[in-house]
Write a structure and sequence with these properties.
alpha/beta, 13-stranded mixed beta sheet, eight-stranded mixed beta sheet, 14 helices, globular
């Protein structure tokens, strides 16, 4: 893939986030938002201003900042500024509600939360008002972008870093300390926090840029994925490393994405199959985007192979991907020089030449032969530092020789690539996010009249949705509405059950490890 596009800009090697800011001239347009461009020089200045603002508000080395923002320049300036002062950013999904926010902010130990005043129909301060202060004991202050007079249970300030020009603190150079926490699904209530360093983020960005042959002069990115997830962040940092311009959507919407692709003649974008499906549905033109070089997609919806073929017939070059919060998104991609059916499969070739993928037979515990399915194990420069404040989970997910046990089932191909087949555990892919069933089950169990609950993912209307099976307490008379409303108030909408069934007992089976609920029968 390195030879596909002629002359390339020389990538700067480095281990710090600030190193990848040196890949272009100060006057180059770095980000293009709805309200205009931000040059590379502008952004460096905003990072310095934000670093000074953080220092003035008591944030220093090792402190955690929770960032609960849509895609805006403040999100990125906070990340790069945190790296400069030695702080850590905990990324909070904008679709989270009170229980999710409390979990991430509480588990991370965040001292500062930076949030939106409101976006579309989401009332961020209103959601935060439902968070009990006791669940986030280390939170000291809340900073609201563009506002500071909203009354909350914490000291509230205005995030106004860009309006001041104090001297920034001297930069710290610890490339291997945690700087960014992504969330991921776990087997216990709430997501685990996946810790990455400047080195893991920067090296992966540079490897993506090299593997895709990105050029500052020829290529551009439509960033339509949220910065709070590794899918959006990895693709964005790769284009920062390449010095190529990045057109940013504050949140995905098909029409603005379509317009930006046409207007700016975007060459690259990354998203889910459903996102590209919605964009393509807006036009009947046979080849609406002749300038596109590569669209990387994650297959979340049924019928994705058929859609990929349809997209190819209309000139959209879709490439399958593989990634996770632990090894970062865009870890691997389908190559352009292979057969179409191989190119679109989830998996592909690692971006880094130093990455190693192997498959372990889950029955024998031995490494599997080529073509044999088993659990994927990965060692790579993009691999996470560990689960934040959870050494036991980190140890469980890591082999003795340093490979990450992905929990995904896949197989190696003879050409050295691999194919992702399915998730080994019970995690559900809802709304494009991997969700642990126990998160939703625990919320259902807290509802009045519920004795027990189990949830599974099912296909409803062509989309993966959550279905819940509930055992009522003796004498309780429940309706689905009695449970949907309190769950929706506590969790993101995509985690709310689309179907609720009341049953007397769960189907179970006896095994050597005890009695297990048969989720397959529930599905």
């Amino acid at each position: 893939m390195r030879k596909r596009h002629g002359r390339r800009a020389q990538l700067q090697n480095g281990r710090l986030l600030r190193d990848i800011l040196e890949s272009g001239a100060p006057a180059d347009a770095m980000f293009i938002f709805d309200d205009g461009p931000v040059t590379r020089g502008d952004f460096k200045r905003k990072v310095e201003q934000t670093a000074a603002w953080l220092t003035a508000h008591g944030i220093g080395a090792g402190d955690v900042i929770a960032v609960w923002l849509v895609n805006r320049v403040e999100w990125l300036s906070l990340l790069f500024a945190a790296a400069r002062v030695g702080a850590i950013v905990a990324a909070v999904n904008t679709r989270y509600r009170a229980a999710d926010v409390a979990h991430v902010v509480g588990l991370s130990g965040a001292k500062l939360l930076v949030l939106e005043p409101g976006f579309r129909s989401i009332d961020f301060p209103g959601i935060l008002a439902d968070v009990e202060p006791s669940s986030v004991p280390e939170l000291r202050q809340v900073a609201i972008v563009g506002a500071g007079d909203i009354e909350l249970n914490w000291r509230t300030v205005r995030f106004d870093a860009f309006q001041h020009d104090p001297k920034p603190p001297a930069p710290r150079d610890d490339a291997d300390a945690p700087v960014l926490l992504f969330t991921t699904s776990g087997t216990t209530k709430g997501p685990k926090l996946v810790a990455h360093s400047q080195n893991t983020l920067t090296s992966h960005a540079q490897n993506i840029a090299r593997a895709l042959g990105l050029s500052a002069q020829e290529h551009s990115l439509l960033a339509m994925l949220p910065f709070c997830g590794t899918f959006g962040m990895a693709s964005l940092l790769a284009f920062v490393a390449a010095g190529a311009p990045i057109h940013v959507l504050d949140a995905f919407d098909a029409q603005p994405a379509f317009d930006a692709l046409r207007r700016a003649r975007i060459t690259h974008s990354f998203g889910s199959d459903e996102m590209f499906r919605r964009i393509l549905a807006l036009t009947g033109e046979q080849r609406p985007f002749p300038h596109v070089r590569l669209f990387g997609f994650a297959a979340f919806q049924p019928g994705w192979r058929e859609f990929a073929a349809l997209a190819a017939a209309r000139g959209l070059p879709l490439h399958g991907l593989y990634g996770s919060s632990e090894v970062q998104a865009l870890f691997a991609i389908g190559r352009a020089d292979v057969a179409f059916e191989d190119r679109i499969e989830c998996g592909g070739w690692p971006m880094s030449p130093e990455a190693h993928v192997r498959v372990r037979d889950m029955e024998t515990g031995e490494l599997a032969e080529t073509g044999t399915s088993g659990e994927l194990e990965i060692a790579a420069p993009s691999r996470f530092l560990g689960y934040f404040k959870n050494p036991a989970a980190t140890s469980e997910a890591t082999t003795a020789d340093g490979f990450f046990r992905t929990g995904d089932i896949g197989r190696m191909r003879a050409d050295g690539s691999f194919v992702y087949e399915t998730r080994a555990g019970d995690a559900m892919r809802l709304g494009g996010f991997l969700v642990g069933p126990s998160e939703i089950e625990d919320e259902l169990k807290h509802c009045a009249g519920v004795a027990d609950a189990q949830v599974v993912a099912v296909e409803i209307g062509g989309q993966a949705r959550c279905a819940a099976f509930v055992i009522p307490q003796s004498g309780a008379l429940l309706s689905p509405d009695d449970l949907v409303s309190p769950v929706r108030a506590r969790l993101a909408n995509y985690k709310t059950p689309a179907r609720i069934y009341f049953i007397e007992a769960f189907p179970v089976t006896d095994s050597a490890n005890g009695v297990k609920i048969q989720r397959a029968k529930l599905r």
